[in-house]
Amino acid sequence: MAGHIVRNVFKILFYVHLFLIAVLVIFLIIYGIVYASHSHHFDPNMWYPPLLISTACSGIVGFTWQWITFKNPTKVIKTMFRLSPLLTCAMGILFVYIGSALSLVVGILALVCGLVQSLYGCWVGPRFEYANRILSVSIADPPVKCKTMTFLSILIGVLYCSFLVCGICGARIMANRTNLFALFILLILLSLGWTMQFLKNVLLVTVSRVKYMNLAGGVIIDTRVSLHNTVKYLAGCVSIGSILLPFISLIRGFARSTNLIGGDTNEFMFSCAGCCMAIASFLVTCGNRWGFVHVGVYNKGFVRASSDTWDIFNRVDLVQLIDLDLTGSFCFLSGVAGGAICSLVSGILSLAMHMNYATEVSIYAFLIGYFMFRLALAWPQACVSAYYVAYAENPLSTHFDSTIPVRLEQLQFQRSREQEDTL
């Protein structure tokens, strides 16, 4: 009962937030139209084209990339692990070239991130073969009308991002009259993140339910019916997951990075690595993307669904395999690459039109591109999630090939070798 109330509260909160953001953006647009001619510090005609063009570019390239993923699943993962660092470094060079204090900080950060991505790509190289295989078998038979639903979601995302861009422009025109413009922009960006996560997770729940039912029992469900049920009955769960999952993923990523860097050293800065990993291990049971499968299939709350799914993984000894899965990293790096592409497009256009706007416009374009690419790749990620959960619940089902069992044997052999080496 309490869980049902919480779901309804978050469902109402999400829709109320959409209404309030719409009111705020409309107000800012009207304000911008009225006072644009009186603003001598900001020219909307030099600000709109780069962002709107990069927003449209994010939709086109994002949809194209998910199509390439479907057509060549055995090549896209390795390609993205090589492409993302290059695009991130190119974006960093652009920010450094712009030359402002903020752009220099962002540019150096982007260059460091590009280097880290390169090193990470080298480190996980041995996992590419299995990652290609699991992605291929998972998306081999996608749900009917999946691509149509993805296209419509991307179209909604482009229109929504364009709408928010207009609101940000109105807030920038307000900059010379009040300091509240920064708060308005922050609220708009937070709404962008929550709403795009919501759209992505709606697709994740919808597609994973259809895929799971097909894998687990051979049942074929109409994708449109699944989408309708998700929006009507599960919006609260999706809203909660859209808030919790990014924070849990961030904490877990930080903990794993700290533990990896710290190793077995006893320096003070790494003394909390074990504590961080314990907290991260607990949090992942409370919120993980695999839980969205049970949200859609069993109408569970997000936290309970995540906990139940993780218990199943523990019971069949799949946790290590899940931890080593590269699908999440592939989707994240695709988002970073998409954001870098949009940032480069908007940044180059801004340099050609009005250099003073280049830093700000490029940052906004990166965020839009990142979320659009994550939205475009929601359905492949959903298929992989459903495949793992369905296998964990019934490993002996004839719907599965030898991909996971063979990988489990390889991991067991590696653990045995490592134990022998330590003796």
From TrEMBL:
InterPro entries: Choline_transptr-like. Signal peptide: none annotated. Its main location: membrane. GO terms for molecular function: transmembrane transporter activity. Pfam families: Choline_transpo (PF04515). One of its GO terms (cellular component) is plasma membrane. Keywords: Membrane, Transmembrane, Transmembrane helix. Belongs to the CTL (choline transporter-like) family. This is Choline transporter-like protein. It comes from Clitoria ternatea.
